[in-house]
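Entry 12.
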Amino acid sequence: MRREHFTLDVSNVDWVETDGEPAKPSVSIDFTGPATDLRERLTGPDGDVLEASETDAALRLQGPLGEDTDGVVSLANRTTGEFLLELNEDADNVLRFIRAARGYGEDETDEGRYEIEILFDGEEFVSYEKGTFLVYDEDGNLLRQHSLIPSGIEL
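Predicted 3D structure (tokens):
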């Protein structure tokens, strides 16, 4: 699967900068490549679609923070470590999304701080409620201060 087959769109993040009413941030990832490829990756050995708890979301920066840099957004199988999908995205957009998810989690008792929805050509395939989003620098080191890590989680 090619990264160009994915489009990322975020919603419910503007309230953070305007001190508006908190709303659960959402990220929508639309896949326009061969649906069977991604469907196979998102399905476990039992034939069922992977649960949210079986996946990890991350951003791997491709340059230093503070500069206009891109990153690679990924969703991985937590058990095998296999990347389920990867796409290029402006790092500032993703970090803004993570700040909104962190802010939403501070004000709400909802388990999920954000939602990921994966679409095939605009049609929803799976939706996950997530509470963790890890950020790594270009050398692969975890940037805890920029990551979304719920309290009580040890990495």
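Annotation: The two ends are 29 Å apart (CA to CA). The chain has three helices and eight strands.
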